[in-house]
Amino acid sequence: FMLIATLLYKTKVTLTEEKHAEIVKELERTWKDISK
C-alpha cells in the first residue's frame, strides 16, 4: 500500500521552481496583509 501511495504521490505532486516561486510570493503577500 505504501508503495502505491508513494507512486501516486510522485506522479501527482510536482513542485517546479516556477510553482515554488509563485507560492512563496503569495505567502509573502498574505503575511504582509496579516502583519498590518
Structural description of this entry:
There is one protein chain. The N and C termini lie far apart (about 45 Å). Helices cover about 80% and strands about 0% of the residues. It has helices at about 1-10, 15-35. It is an all-alpha fold.
> What is the N-to-C order of secondary-structure elements (H for helix, E for strand)?
HH
End-to-end Cα distance, whole Å, is 46 Å
Strand count: 0
Overall pLDDT level: 86
Q: With helices defined by DSSP (H or I, 4 residues minimum), what is the helix count? A: 2
Q: Characterize the biggest β-sheet.
A: none
Summarize the structure.
By secondary structure, this protein is mainly alpha-helical. The chain is 81% helix and 0% strand.
